[in-house]
Amino acid sequence: MGFLDDVTKLISNIPFVEKAYDFVEEKLQIRGKVIISFKELEKPLEFEIVVFKCYPLKYNDADSIKFKNSNLIEYRHVMEDGAICIHTTHHTNLKSKLNYDFHSLRNWIVKYYINKEQDDHYEHIIVDDKLINNRYWSYQFTDLKHPFEKGEFGEVSITSIQLGTFKSNLISNHIIQNFIRENGEQLECEWSQLYKNMDITNSGAYVYIETPPATYGKFIFTKWLDLQDHLPERFLNFLLEFQKRHIKHRGKLLPLFIGYKIDDVNLHWQVAMLEIGDFPIIGYQLPNKKWITIPKNELDINWGITRNTSYKYFFGRGSFSQSFAEKKILIIGVGALGSMVAKTLTRCGCRFIDIADNDIKEPENVCRSEYIFNTGLMDKTEELKFILSTISPFIETNIVDKDYFQGIIKLFHKEKGGKSSFEANLNKYDLVVDCTTDNDLMYILDSLDLKCDLINLSITNFAKELVCAFHPNTYNFVMNQFMNVLENDTSDLYNPTGCWSPTFKASYNDISLLVQMAIKHIHNLYETGSRKTNFIIENDSSNLKIVEY
C-alpha cells in the first residue's frame, strides 16, 4: 500500500470520523475531506485535510497535517485560511500520530467550538510580515509609566539600532524612545540610560484606539476603510498637517503606531507604514465650507513589524527572582571570572551592575572570558559595559574609577576617615562580588564594617575548585583553603611572553562550568533565605560537588 492508501484507511478507522473521502495525491502532499461526528457535537463538521508526505514528521518546524474549515474562522485558534491551530506530541508511528492529531482536533471542537472557552493568556493579532520598499521594518517598544486614553494621538521619537537580515531580506530595526502628546508632554520608554541617550533618527505618529484593529479580534485589518470608525477626525487632521510639515521628505516612510489594550494592564502597538506625500487620507471641503479629513477607503494598509520588549516579556522565559534582579551589584575584577559573572547576571535579569578593573583586554584574554576580538585593545570595563548593553536594554552599568581598588583604597585605608569613606561607598550596594584574586585587596575588604553583602570568588589552577567566601569571613577562609586545604598546583602556571604575572591554566569551559554552578547556588541562598555559608565547588571531571563550611 502507498502513503495515500495508508493514510486514508487509518483515518477511516478513527471512531469519530464519520466519513473520509475525495482523497487525492499531489506532489508533496495528499488532500481529502473528513466529516467529524460524536455525541457532544450537535451537527457533524466537515474539514478539508492536508497531509504532507513527511508526516508524521514536522515540515519547516510546523505540524505536517492541517485541518481546514473556513466557516470557523470566528472561533479561537483558527487561522485566516480556516486552518485549525493545534500542536500535538511527537510520534514517528503513522497510526499513533494520526490518532493523536485527530483527538487534538476533537478536543479543539469541544473546547472552542462547543463550549466557546476563552484562553487565560492573550493571543496576538495575526500580522503577515510584509516587504515594504524591498525591506522589512521592525519597531520595538517597552513599558511607560503613563497610561493612554482612547483617541489620544501625537508624535513618536525613534532610534535606528541595526540593519540586519530577516527571512533572507534586509530589515531596518528600531526602538521607540518617546511618545509626544499634543501638549508637548514626553512619555519616555523605560530603556536603560544608555539606550535613552542614543540619537533620535526618525519620527513617527501614534494614535491610541483602545480596541484591537482586527476582525474577530485576531485578523488585522487590511484596508484603511476598516479603520475609519477607529480614527478620530482630529487625528486625521493632525496627520494631514504632519504630512504638510514634512513634505520636503516626500517618498520617505513614516511609521504610524496604533495602540490598543490587550488586558486590564497591558497594551500593544501595531505599526502601519505611510509614505510622505501619499498618506492614505484625503481632506475636502463640505458645502458649509467646513473641511474634513477621511481615509482613502480603497487603499491597503502596509503593516510593519512590532515587538513588545518590556522587561516582563524580555525575561519572560527565565530570570532570577525579582528581589535579586533589583539588587545594586558591584563586581570588582572583570577578568575571566568577573566577566562571566557580569554577563550571567545580566542575562538573568539583573538591572544594576557596576564594574571595576584597571586592566586592559589583551588578545589572549578573549579565549576564556566574555570579551570579543574585533574591538582590539580596550579597557576591560569599557568593553564589558558595551557587551552588557548589547544583551539587555535594561541594564544600568557604571564604571568605578580604575585606580579605586588597586590604588586609592590601599594607600588610604589606614588614614583617618579613609576606612569609613570606603565603607560608605561600598554600602551603596546590596551586593559586592570580588573576583580580583588580589589577596591584598581581600585583606582590606575583610577589615571593613560593611552593611552590604560581599562575596569573594576565586578558582584554583586547572579550575579544579572554585572557592566562595562571604564577608566577614573571607580572607582567613580563602587563604586557608589555598594554602592548607586544596591541592592548588602552582608549579604549572601559564607564563605569557613578556614581563607578566603568571596566571592559572583553565579553558572557558572549565571556568564557566564552576561559575554557573556558583551563581546558581548563591541565587538559591538568597531566594530561600538560607544562611550564607562559605562553600567550595569541587570538579573531578565527572561531576561537581558543593562542600559547605
Distinctive features:
549 residues, alpha+beta, Rossmann fold, eight-stranded mixed beta sheet, seven-stranded mixed beta sheet, 26% helix, globular
Briefly note the structural class of the backbone: alpha+beta
The geometry reads as: globular
Strand content: 25-35%
- Write out the CATH superfamily name of the largest domain: NAD(P)-binding Rossmann-like Domain
Q: Mind telling me the CATH class of the largest domain? A: Alpha Beta
Q: What name is given to the CATH topology of the largest domain?
A: Rossmann fold
The average pLDDT score comes to 92
Largest sheet: 8 strands, mixed
Q: Helicity range of the residues?
A: 25-40%
CATH structural architecture of the largest domain: 3-Layer(aba) Sandwich
Count the DSSP helices. 14
Task: Explain this structure.
The protein is α+β, with helices and mostly antiparallel strands. The protein folds into three domains: 3-114; 136-314, no CATH class; 322-548, NAD(P)-binding Rossmann-like Domain (Rossmann fold), CATH 3.40.50.720. It has 14 helices and 25 strands. The strands form six sheets. Strands 5, 6, 7, 8, 9, 12, 13 and 16 form an eight-stranded mixed sheet that branches.
Please write out the topology.
Layout (H helix, E strand, L loop, with lengths): L2 H10 L4 E9 L3 E8 L8 E8 L12 E4 L25 H21 L21 E6 L11 E14 L2 E13 L4 E3 L4 H4 L5 E9 L3 E2 L3 E2 L3 H4 L5 H13 L7 E9 L5 E9 L5 E5 L5 E5 L9 E4 L2 H4 L7 H4 L2 E5 L3 H12 L4 E5 L3 E2 L16 E2 H12 L12 H9 L5 H9 L4 E4 L4 H9 L5 E7 L5 E6 L4 H11 L22 H21 L6 E5 L4 E5 L1
Parallel strand pairs: 5-7, 5-16, 9-12, 17-18, 17-21, 21-22
Antiparallel strand pairs: 1-2, 2-3, 3-4, 6-7, 6-9, 7-8, 10-11, 12-13, 14-15, 19-20, 22-23, 23-24, 24-25
